[in-house]
Amino acid sequence: MTITTIRACIDGIGLLGPGLNGWPGSLPILSGQQPYQPQKTVLPAPALLPPAERRRSGDIVKLTLATGLEAISAAGLDAARLPSVFAASGGDGVNCHAICEMLASDDRQISPTRFHNSVHNAAAGYWSIATRAMTASSVLCAYDASFGAGLLEALAQVMTDNTPVVLLACDTAYPEPLHSARPLPDALGIALVLAPKPGPATLVSVSVTLTDAVADRYAHPVLEQLRASIPAARGLPLLCAIAQRQPQQVILDYLDDTRLAIAVTPC
Q1: How far, in Å, CA of 134 to CA of 172, rounded?
Q2: Contact yes or no for 190/10 (Cβ under 8 A)
């Protein structure tokens, strides 16, 4: 299987998930210097939002803002000027659960807040409010392939438009009974600032193509469970390669018969 290779630089990373609290704090774990200890994800309040929007924002919004702002700050860029790509396998699970409860009750009137938070681009809307960004925003969903689809979309924009782009890949859990049908164990988000050429903040350059090779797996059973159980966590092997600061190739899960081969070169 062949495809034109897509290349870009990674200038900033944001990470938040179970036992992974920010990119700097997660480096010892991802580089293999410290054992992984799973802990429930703690989502910070979205301080940049006005009070009214802050009260209405759900977990997916909090996760998007936390990871996206971390990545952009590390890259030394202005969030208001960056095009963005949002990738999530579902959206706000808690809000979806609340709407289903309302529809199953005698009073089936859904609140306006619940309704406007139900759309898949809700996080993108809150992002534009918080960062004052008026740049182009793409929002996509590819179920378990959402991280790979988001990465390809962001890379394609970087190459086509010759401009930095921020990828925000996030997933949050559903309460029961939806959890039994879609058992995401916790919230996890990865944000990447991708740029067309190296700069002062560049961490690595990446070359991406499609492959039918088998995706990388973790030898550590708990880390492998995390990678396999949350779609956004499919990007963790890429972050491990970046943390290890060595040239290498990683294979990420994407579609059933197609994966992403990523050559990682430290800068």
Answers
A1: 26
A2: no
CATH of the domain at 39: 3.40.47.10
Residue 131: helix, strand or coil by DSSP?
A: helix
- Between vectors from CA 174 to CA 226 and to CA 127, what angle results, nearest 5°? 85
| Residue 96 burial (10 A CB sphere; 0-12, 13-18, 19+) | buried
Number of domains in the chain: 1
For residue 260, which phi and psi values (nearest 5 degrees)? Answer: -110, 120
Cβ-based neighbours of 59, under 8 Å, separated by 6 or more = 43, 92, 93, 94, 172, 187
Q: How many Å apart are CA 127 and CA 213, to the nearest integer?
A: 36
**Residue 213, φ and ψ in degrees, nearest 5:** -70, 160
Which residue segment(s) compose the domain that 22 sits in?
10-202
User: What pLDDT is stored for residue 3 in this prediction?
Assistant: 56
pTM of the predicted protein model: 0.94
Please tell me the distance from the alpha carbon of residue 203 to that of residue 238, in angstroms, as a whole number.
12
Residue 93 in any domain: the answer is: yes
Residue 1 is predicted with a pLDDT of 43
Q: Which residues of the chain are under the pLDDT cut of 70?
A: 1-3
pLDDT tens-digit profile of 100-109?
988 998 888 8
Burial code of 177-200, b = ≥16 C-beta within 10 A, e = fewer? ebeeeeebbbbbbbbbbbbbeeee
